[in-house]
Design goal:
Bound molecules: 6-O-phosphono-alpha-D-glucopyranose
Shape: globular
Number of strands: 12
Helix content: 40-55%
Oligomer: single chain
Low-confidence stretches: none
């Protein structure tokens, strides 16, 4: 096992550090900025159908569901197709409205999640085109879908999903770009810029990982916390949910993710000097807004840990701790902003003496109801 962990103390840490490579593997043979092309072989036959579809429904569970929420923003922004993201377990027990020609994307690391499989069967029986975004090659979901794209992140052993999430977001982003291109609504220059930025993502993840020591120091200050709030807006809202999920899964600290603006409708009541609040506050269209949310938390003496874009001068004057990530295209930000949150939860869990790779009560793949 020590050999399998490649010198890391835990699989989770190894998998966090593998992300520059796993994202690169996911782009390999698919993205080529020099030649200006983007190919998703597994979707080729269905690209026209997706481009023509009136609606996309994403079904998934857990972390994969969070990747789906990121994809909702990206698809709607680039491909201008309405997207709904459903928990597979809820979708399957309703009488969901699915019309022939609707596209259903099932996201699953293991490809074996029972609820997601059942959601697929239901959508299929209603005439939907089913696409899979899976990591485990040859697993049940890719075998039952019409088409799809593998995430190629390699085996993920840690129960808390890390590299599978960034690979899912990567593939879904490629899908959205490919569909936007096919629809003829993504200008050549913008397309080229995306390809260029996508190719830079692995090295930028590498740069975020260089902050690991600093994140460990911050973790030490909060390892005794009993609650955490994670706030983000836009594309960083699902990242907030994912950060909170990572923390509760492995450290057993109660954590909630919220869209930052919703804070005033509830979570703000929880804020006092003992409440750590993690803001994902990168430079994007909601920057000014999230700055005022940080002020609202500071006014109530909350402890602010902020993930910011490098070079940010303002937030460091307000937050208690900042973690910088490199600048990228706004749509690609979640691929970078989630990394510090993975490390934060990892270090806090280790400091609390938790079994990070096999947290209590959780399974890597849930093949029962
Ligand atoms: C379990 C795992 C999670 C995972 C979820 C969905 O709860 O512990 O890490 O996100 O199942 O699994 P899937 O394999 O379908 O992505």
């Amino acid at each position: 096992e020590a050999i399998e962990k490649g010198g890391y103390e835990h699989f989770m840490l190894k998998e966090i550090f593998e992300q520059p490579r796993s994202v690169k593997d996911c782009f390999r043979g698919r993205v080529n900025a020099d030649e200006g092309h983007l190919v998703l072989g597994g979707l080729r036959e269905y690209l026209d159908d997706i481009a023509k579809s009136q609606r996309i429904v994403i079904v998934a569970c857990g972390t994969s569901w969070h990747a789906g929420l990121v994809a909702e923003y990206v698809f709607e922004e680039l491909a201008r197709i309405p997207v709904e993201v459903e928990y597979a377990s809820e979708f399957r027990y309703r009488n969901p409205i699915i019309k022939e020609g609707d596209v259903v994307i099932a996201i699953s690391q293991s490809g074996e999640t029972m609820d997601t499989l059942a959601a697929i069967e239901l959508a299929k029986s209603k005439g939907a085109i089913i696409l899979g975004v899976c990591n485990a090659v040859g697993s049940s979901i890719p075998r039952t879908t019409h088409a799809g794209a593998y995430t190629h992140a390699g085996p993920e052993i840690g129960v808390a999903s890390t590299k599978a999430f960034t690979a899912q977001v990567s593939v879904l982003t490629l899908m959205a770009i490919a569909v936007a291109r096919r629809k003829g609504i993504l200008h050549e220059d913008t397309f080229r810029r995306f390809l260029f930025e996508l190719e830079r993502i692995p090295e930028k993840i590498e740069k975020v990982l260089k902050n690991a020591e600093k994140i460990k120091e911050i973790s030490a200050l909060f390892s005794e916390a009993r609650n955490f709030i994670y706030l983000g807006r836009g594309l960083n809202f699902p990242v907030a949910l994912e950060g909170a999920l990572k923390l509760k899964e492995i450290s057993y600290i109660h954590a909630e993710g919220y869209p930052a603006a919703e804070m005033k409708h509830g979570p703000i009541a929880l804020i006092d000097e003992d409440m750590p609040v993690v803001f994902i506050a990168t430079r994007d269209q909601s920057y000014e807004k999230i700055v005022s949310n940080i002020q609202e938390v500071k006014a109530r003496k909350g402890k602010v840990i902020a993930v910011v874009t490098e070079g940010d001068k303002l937030i460091p004057t307000m937050a208690d701790h900042v973690i910088e990530i490199p600048i990228t295209h706004e749509v690609l930000t979640p691929l970078l902003s989630v990394i510090p949150l993975q490390l934060l939860s990892y270090h806090i869990a280790v400091m609390r003496g938790c079994n990070v790779d096999q947290p209590r009560n959780l399974a890597k793949s849930v093949t029962v109801e």
